[in-house]
Amino acid sequence: MKIYTRTGDRGRTGLFSGERVSKADLRVSAYGTVDELNSVLGVLAASLGRESARTAEGVRRVQSDLFRLGAWFATSPDTPAFEELPALDPGAVAWMEAEIDRMESALPPLRGFILPGGHPAAAWAHLARAVCRRAERRGVAFVQDLQSAEAETTLTRAIVYLNRLSDYLFVLARDLNRLAGLEDEPWEQGDS
């Protein structure tokens, strides 16, 4: 099978449920941004050293979850295919919250805004957080456009997941800097 099909040459793409929609469709924007986030997380995982095996395992877990979320957005909610999609682990959000709490226990309290950056792995986590927020906004736009209450309930779980993931990525960036011996760089509000 060839990687190119030419079926998208006129600005339309196929959903998992079989329909063809515009590449500008809200759902395509949502799952495309989830895919972008997954790719940034791949770079983050690749930038981690061997001493960060636990973090790398957590990032891979998130990447698997994002494939599920992408599939939800890439399938019409009113089709049988939507009902057959793999469910998100019900403990996924609780796992992120526990990881946030664990990392925060070793971090100094925030006293203001911090600049994204520091160690390269932390910088990738900050970038992933920003892409995650965009994925969340695009997912919200798609969910608000839905007509199906049942599908909205399922997809709202995706929004909750993305919201918590951005928190996890923010704290992960801070923790990666801490592990590298770097302090958060505060935003200076003075004149430039």
How are the SSEs placed, and which strands pair?
Layout: E1 12-14, E2 20-22, H1 26-47, H2 53-73, H3 80-83, H4 92-104, H5 120-144, H6 149-179
Describe the overall structure.
The chain is mainly alpha-helical. The chain has a domain at 21-76 and 115-179: Up-down Bundle (Hypothetical Protein Ta1238, Chain: A), CATH 1.20.1200.10. The chain contains 6 helices and 2 strands; from the N terminus they run E-E-H-H-H-H-H-H. The protein has a two-stranded antiparallel ribbon with strand order 1-2. The model has no long low-confidence stretch (mean pLDDT 89).
Would you kindly provide a brief summary of this structure?
The chain is 60% helix and 3% strand. It has 192 residues and is mostly helical.
Record field, number of beta strands = 2
Structural class: mainly alpha
Q: Which quaternary structure do these chains form? A: single chain
CATH architecture of the domain at 21-76 and 115-179: Up-down Bundle
Strand proportion, as a percent range, falls in: under 5%
Question: In CATH terms, what is the fold-level topology of the domain at 21-76 and 115-179?
Answer: Hypothetical Protein Ta1238, Chain: A
> Quick one: CATH class of the domain at 21-76 and 115-179?
Mainly Alpha
From the alpha-carbon coordinates, what is the Rg to the nearest angstrom?
18 Å
User: How are the strands of the largest sheet arranged?
Assistant: 1-2
Helix/strand order = EEHHHHHH
Distance between the termini: 56 Å
Percentage of residues in helical conformation: 55-70%
Strand count, sense and barrel status of the largest sheet are: 2 strands, antiparallel
Give start-end ranges of low-pLDDT stretches: none
Mean pLDDT across residues: 89
Which term fits the overall shape? elongated
Count of helical stretches: 6
For this structure, what is the CATH homologous superfamily of the domain at 21-76 and 115-179? Cobalamin adenosyltransferase-like
